[in-house]
Structure prediction request, 926 residues.
Amino acid sequence: MFRARSPRSLPAAVLVTGLALAVSACGGGSGDTTAADSGATAAAAQLNPNADLTKQSVTVTVWADYTPKELPEKVKEKLKFDLKVTLHDTNEVAMAKLTSGADTGIDVAFVSGQYAQALNEAGLLEPLHPELIPNLANLYPEAKELAYDKGNVFSVPYTWGTTGICYRSDLVKTPPASWNDILNPPADAEKKVTMMTTERWLALPAVKALGYSVNTRSDEELAKVKEKLLAAKPHLLGYDDTTFGDKLKSGEAVMVEAWDGWCPTTEKNIKFVVPKEGSDLWVDTMVILKSSKNKEAAHALINYILSPEIHGWAAENILYKVPNKAAMDQVDAKLKADNTPLQMTPAQLLQGESIIDLGEDSTKFSRLQTEVKAAK
Amino acid sequence: MTSSTVSGAAAGSRSHRSRVIGRLAFLGPGLTYLIVFLLIPLGMVLSYTLFRRGRFGGVVYEATGENFTRLLEPLYLDVVVGSLKLAGLATLVALLVGYPTAYLIAQLPRKWKTIALVAIVLPFWTNFLVRIYAWIVLLSGPGLVNSTLVKLGLVDKPLELLYNEGTIVTGLVYSYLPLMVLPLYAAIEKLDPQLREASANLGARPARTFVSVTLPLTLPGIVTGCLFVFVPSFGNFVIPELLGGGRSIMVGNLIRDQFLNARDWPFGATLSLALLAVLIVLLLLQAWSSRRA
Amino acid sequence: MRRPRLLYVPFWVTYVFLYTPIVVLVAMSFNAGKSPYVFAGFSLKWYGELAGNATIREGLVNTLVVAAGSTVLSTVLGTLLAVGLARHTRSRVLDALGVLPAVLPDLVLGIGLLVFYAAVKMTLGLHSVLLAHAVFGMAFVTAVVRTRLTHADTSLEEASRDLGATPLATFFRVTLPQLAPGVAAGALLAFTLSVDEFVIAFFTAAPTTPTLPIVIYSMVRFGVTPEINALATLLLAVSFTVVIVAQRMTRLTESLS
Prediction:
């Protein structure tokens, strides 16, 4: 069907690469598109509280199934502007796009707290205008005390939770209570345990078992963490951020490191526990891009999402806790009773340590991840 | 290239002019496109290798050689060597299975030949990821293979078929086998059957004929097929994650992690350059083999 | 002709190997239950849900636009380039350049293009994916057409030139008709590769214009649902039809030339 033609000589290949490098020397200068180290948040742009929103339209990027399907229709009806919802599968992908300097046309992005912090440090976020978001009053006081953005200067929390152990109560003899149960599983859980695969959460069980901060930058501590993670590797089924729920349901795994909202506790025999050594506090936030040309409408959208109706939808449908008192108060009592993670209070959540972006030192965690995953 | 045979100064200059026009018209558009959308982007990525990562991602334009010294650390070299091994193994398996398949397809009657070839490419038209998930369903603990084995009483408890390097190789072979079969088929189909007959008539045994006639003549196809399987295998990051359970990583994972998770674009670019270097060695091999053929 | 019997073993292994997972995913798309491990009865409900899924429909349309557009672009550019390489230059550097995108890892090309688009301040969208897909599509078209050119009879082209035809006239009246089957095969290949391409599309698409593989990727974060299997089955059925039709057409052009 097809016959591939091939280059006939090596010099050709070498020359091609040489040419590429030569071109790059010219291209490099114009390529400084990713603003880094620009640090401090610039002064807020002047926004008009009485702007005609019908002339604006907002594009949001968010995880699949994270906002109500009919949100665009509702926004059109209530706020009179067009909303386009687009999807990203991970924080990392959203970050690659938003920091590439490419014009993506995104006005509002949903990203986790430490990523919002990094976007802000890179000078890509618009400082919020609280006067345009009166529904901020619905948030718990604790929701203004989050380490990556104290006082909600550039981000508004949408959901929050913690990381713990999700397990099959019928397939383990003693319910897990410590991170060490994952790191050094009992015989009946041997090779039936998964840990998460992304840097900070891969390290979390060992970090907490050793009593360190989730935001540790100490080489000495991270060396101990590495040792513990390497010792755990032979006992694991694998590293998994995505399908651990399926593996629990099928019985392939009996104990997994999981985010609270992803642990399918509605299933019989599946339970969630926060280990006694403590855990993290993760927050998914909404941010407005500085490049947005629809900032007034973007504020109006965030304000609308903070209404008990929409924010309550998130709690009832994605089964994540929301930092919104008015919304949490109206969540169905039976639903709360069936989903133990939903019962955690803001005070309990705040015992978890908020993950922040470590700047230069975050490469230490990338390295740790590579070292652990590359080990035989 | 044969140029006009008409002699004379006027005709000569006209032929020269038309040659220039021909070059511009035929080579111009494609080459311009490749320079803009291939060489410049490639050059830009590779230029990052010389700079530092910004505190919160991005690139700081301060020259440094640290990316290259980092590349030479055993940690990353081990991953490169490990990937070479896995991709090499996948290529070898694909060749061993693909060669006889392509050989037989080439000998089929014309009607069956078409059907057999289409059947090789067809799985390509579904989604890559969905096919990989189908393998998980097949091979997992409660999956089809294991439950059948248990039911037949061949094993007492489910075998650990997933999440190891063998599964990664299986996944790679599965995903890229068609890219091996097609170039092989092209090379084998071109063979003149008379050559083999002559060899047989001269008393050579089939094995001898294969080694001294068929194999050398199809070498360019073998090398091209191997290249087409090896390259995407080497850079793959989905298969080690899903079928390997994240327990081993390949160069593709490293690059992906640097660009996405670590937001370390300079080091990601350096790893890409290393990948490209391996590629050039392979192109050398291919150039050498096609020149010999 | 003698066909060694032993060869049939790897031959059938290949096909069984290629199609076993396909059989599994087709079966699962008709599964009434959600678990991939239990067949809970025959059902078409996932196909119904598929029809109601606007995101998938949008992704499918985007994919077809990108695949069609990039196929046209890469076929035109690739065919011209192949003729140029075969008839108008002897440069091996250019030869190598022509095939480079076909063997370049997709990750490197995807990231390079994202950075490039950012530098020239180009808005991302369907066009940015289309242009990206044309880069590798073109390499495959060039490769296929070049093979065809090495078998082509050059005497007609020479005659045309000697009679004073311009290179362009020679190309359109003489060369192109001879190349038709190769051009068709190359185009088919470019289209196929574009439809299932994930990595490059993932980097060069705007969040507002995901192609089908990107949509599927964001949906399988929590594992493949029967709905996705239904989609894959439909894709398979459609592709099968397209391949058969294309094959017929190729044979038609072959017999005409």
Notes: Chain C touches chain B through 92 residues (CB under 8 Å). The mean pLDDT of chain C is 82. The longest helix of chain C spans residues 54-87. Chain C is about 75% helix and 0% strand.
